[in-house]
Design brief:
mainly alpha
Length: about 130
Amino acid sequence: MATIPSRGVSDVIVDLLKEFSNLMRSEVRLARAEVSAKITMAGMGLALIVFGAVLAIAALVILLEAGVDAMVNQAGFTPWQAAVILGGAALIVSIVLFVIGAVRLKAQNLAPTKTVEQLQRDAAVAKYQVSPR
């Protein structure tokens, strides 16, 4: 019958430190990957804001001029009334675009939540393993 070799306390501590080191390296890799993904998401949000603003400027100038002309010639508004009405509508649309982009840039959307949750689970397991039973 084979006997299981007994391990000393120092061997167990060395193994524990190695495993803890491996765990921390894995957590750092997870954190890097998650932060990278969050930065990409923030970049996309910022790109949408910029693209929306640039596109809005060019399109709105043309559309507002045509709309003012139509309101003056077809609906009987004065030029300043037509410009205020259409300019106000354009302002509302641009505010909506900026709000959507800003929501994507909120700090809570960029926080590495998966890494934090994993670290909390690891700490709970380690605490359970060390606690006297």
